[in-house]
Structure formats: C-alpha cells, structure tokens
Specification:
The protein has about 270 residues and is an alpha+beta fold. It folds into two domains: about 190 residues, no CATH class; about 70 residues, no CATH class. About 55% of the residues lie in helices and about 10% in strands. It is built from eleven helices and six strands. A four-stranded antiparallel sheet has the order 3-4-5-6, covered by helices on one side. Strands 1-2 form a two-stranded antiparallel sheet. A hairpin with a 4-residue loop joins strand 5 and strand 6. Helix 1 crosses helix 11 and helix 6 crosses helix 11. The protein starts with 11 loop residues before the first strand and ends with a helix.
C-alpha cells in the first residue's frame, strides 16, 4: 500500500451488510453529505449524524448538534453557527480529535484575537507562520489522498453509484463543489473587501469583528451559491475547484472504500430513522 498504510476491508457496518445497504441507498433519495479528511481516516456527516472511519478498522459514530430554530432566521448568526457545527466532530470531547489536537485547534481559532495586541508587521509575520504551520499539520500523511476519497465517496452517494464505486467499476470525481476549500477561496477576498470598506476608525476590536463578519457573510454567500440554479453562480466556486488540485490527490481503491464505509455508517442511521 502507498505510504505503508494498511486498510481493513469493511464489509459490514454495525451488523449491516454494505452490499445490501448500498443497494438500498442507490435507489433512495438521500440527505446532503459533507465531510473532512484526516491523516488517519475520513469523517462523513449529514445534518443529523457523523461517522469517522479510521484506517485501523474502527468506526466512530455520533450525532451532529442541532441548529436552534430561532437562529435559522438570523442572517450572519446562522452562518456562524453552521460553521461551528461543521467542526463539531473534531472539537467535541467524544469526537475524532484527541485532547492535544483539540487544544491546538482551539489555540489556532483564538490566535487572531492575540494578534490584535501585536504591531502590524509582527502580526502579519505571525499570521503567515501560523497559516503555513497549520496547513503542513493538516495535510500531513495521506490526508490529501483521503480528501480525494472523501469527495469521491460523497459523489458516489449523490449519483446513486455507491455499489459500483465500492467495486471500482466507476470512479466519481475527486473534486467537489461543496468542499471547504471552496469556502476558504471565498472568505479570503471577502475579508479583504470588508477590510477595505470598513467605515469606522480602526480600534482594538476591529480585526476580530471583521473576521467574524467576513465568515458570516461568506457562509451566507456560500449557501446562496450552493442552492442557486443560475449557471453564473458557479463562477464563485471556480477558484476553490482550482485550489482542490493542490488539496486533493487521486485516492487508491482502499482509501475510497474507507470513505465509503463512513458514508455507509451515516446512511444506515439516516435510512433507519
């Protein structure tokens, strides 16, 4: 195996045959799925459930947090809440990440607040170093290949080709319109524009407010683009799709099956609910 990884062949998930589950799922309307890749496996999530298929052969299952009904009607706030919920499988105590990793991720999220107290040059250098270090840490090991596997498994579910993808008869695209890479490609220019048009005098809290507003605005735009049937709306996704050529690699069939196992875990619960 490339990289010396040893993947166990998942044929059953919680006592359910994958062949039977995939056959059922391929002929049934399914909920939207998302996910994330890690060096040691793949996370797949629906609005209600998540599953982490580890390369050691284990599967961790859990439930996603529910967005409060009142937040669904508040622009920006609902976007920020959804963004926070999307990383729930990582940051929760019973989730995918270990204690030390949760501490690192929390420190990264809070770092921009600390940068407020640094000079402009020092803050810029610190931000660049932190970003480079975070990218190197996130993309370590086989993460890029498993990122491609995650996209392929989700595309297989959307196209009703789970069984055929497992058997390696078809290979859905490793690029995804809903990838977080596309979100990052949107949030960067929006943050720059927000900083340029900010009408108030700079203050200690300005960078934090701008960052929060930019994330909220990007999530609102993201949801509009994703739900739009206007072809021109896809223009906003092209930079992220191009960036995915750097953030994904062509996965092996075993890596794809690992991601499909996580998909199966989520769909088993969705279909039985």
């Amino acid at each position: 195996m490339p990289g010396g990884l040893a993947f166990r062949q998942f044929l059953w998930v919680q006592g359910v045959s994958l062949a039977a589950l995939f056959q059922r799922a391929d002929s049934t309307p399914l909920p939207a799925l998302g996910g994330m890749a890690r060096p040691d496996g793949v996370v797949i999530a629906s609005e209600r459930y998540f599953a982490f298929a580890n390369r050691d052969g284990s599967i961790l299952e859990g439930e996603m947090p529910t967005l409060p009904s009142y937040l669904r009607r508040i622009p920006l706030a609902r976007g920020l809440a959804r963004l926070g919920m999307s990383v729930s499988p990582l940051l929760r105590r019973d989730g995918v990440a270990g204690k030390s990793e949760r501490i690192v991720l929390t420190a990264v999220f809070l770092a921009p607040i600390a940068f407020v107290f640094l000079s402009g040059t020092v803050s810029l250098v610190a931000g660049i170093l932190m970003s480079v270090g975070l990218l190197a840490w996130i993309m370590r090991g086989r993460t890029l290949f498993l990122h491609g596997a995650e996209h392929r498994a989700i595309a297989a579910a959307e196209q009703g080709q789970l069984g055929a993808t497992w058997e390696d008869e078809v290979r859905p695209s490793r690029f995804s319109l809903r990838c977080g890479t596309n979100f990052v490609a949107l949030v960067l220019p929006i943050t720059l524009v927000a900083d340029h048009v900010w009408p108030f005098a700079p203050a200690l809290w300005t960078p934090v407010v701008l960052a929060v507003l930019s994330l909220g605005l990007t999530m609102e735009l993201w949801r509009v683009v994703q739900s739009s049937t206007v072809p021109m709306a896809r223009f906003f996704l092209y930079p992220g799709l191009a960036l995915q050529r750097l953030t994904t690699r062509e996965p092996t069939i075993d890596e794809t099956r690992l991601a499909l196992s996580a998909v199966a875990s989520v769909l088993r619960r969705e279909l039985d609910a």
